Amino acid sequence: MGRFKVRKDDITWDHCTMVEPPNKTYLKCNYCGEKFHGGVYRMKHHLARTRKDAKLCSKVPDNVTALFDKMLKDKENEKAKQNDEMFDLGGNDEDNFIDVNAPRPPKRDHVGGGSVGNRGGNIDKIFSKKANQTTLNEHWKKEEREKAIRKIARFFYCNNIAFNVANDFFFKDMVQCLTKFGPRFKPPSYHELRVPLLKKEVAYVNDIMQDFRDK
Ligand SMILES: [Zn+2]
Questions:
Q1: pLDDT tens digits, one per residue of 168-192
Q2: CA of 152 relative to ligand 1 center, distance in Å
Q3: Rounded distance from Cα 33 to ligand 1 centre (Å)
Q4: How far is the CA of 27 from the centre of ligand 1 (A)?
Q5: Alpha helix locations (H) across the chain?
Q6: Which of 40, 98, 177, 203 has CA 20 to 30 A from 86's CA?
Q7: Quick check: is 79 in a domain?
């Protein structure tokens, strides 16, 4: 069943009860009294009566079933849409995206141009863009962004990468490039990094230096 993200504001909690608090994965349906493991994920399917991953609820009112059914379908649709846009999740709040360690601002409900005040080149503008955001499900986006930035953070911590690298142009440029490429991106191998890419980079830097000397 994997792990479950538990959110207190999930409306599923209005329709079920923890059997053994604070264990949030073993729940009892408030309508039929059925108890099962699997947390709110299964409870949603139980209430939505999807026949997927959980027994159907025999007593849930139709309007509640409709609500959960819609919620699950919306989530699936958003997931499909989001696959190529994983990294544009920070919305218009560029600091939120760039600084993995920064505390979140209390409110992020401003809509529009974004904050382009600080030494912004194109990258900053791209990161703060609100592409397609209005069509996306806020709730899902937050969860997915949380997953993504945790992976990035882990990469930093496990490799002793200094936190200020998060502000580095080449870091942002790399992430932006990945987002454009999409889900089929294959990262460079040890060999590619060590031989062909290094050669190209050395040649590139030499070219720049040559230009500089010619001036
Ligand atoms: Zn039930």
A1: 989 999 998 988 888 888 999 999 9
A2: 39
A3: 6
A4: 10
A5: 39-48, 62-82, 94-98, 122-127, 138-158, 169-181, 190-194, 196-214
A6: 40
A7: no
Is position 89 within any domain? yes
103 with 138, same domain?
yes
Based on the number of CB atoms within 10 Å of its own CB, is 173 exposed (0-12), middle (13-18) or buried (19 or more)?
Answer: middle
Pair (171, 208) in one structural domain:
no
3-state secondary structure of 110: coil
Q: Is residue 72 part of a domain?
A: no
Contacts of 30 (CB under 8 A, 6+ apart): 15, 16, 17
What is the CA(9)–ligand 1 centre distance, in A?
20
Does the N-terminal peptide bond of residue 22 adopt cis geometry, omega within 30 degrees of 0? yes
User: Distance from the CA of 138 to the center of ligand 1, in angstroms?
Assistant: 28
Give the predicted TM-score (pTM) of the model. 0.39
Residues 6+ apart with CB under 8 A from 214: none
- Domain assignment of residue 176, yes or no: yes
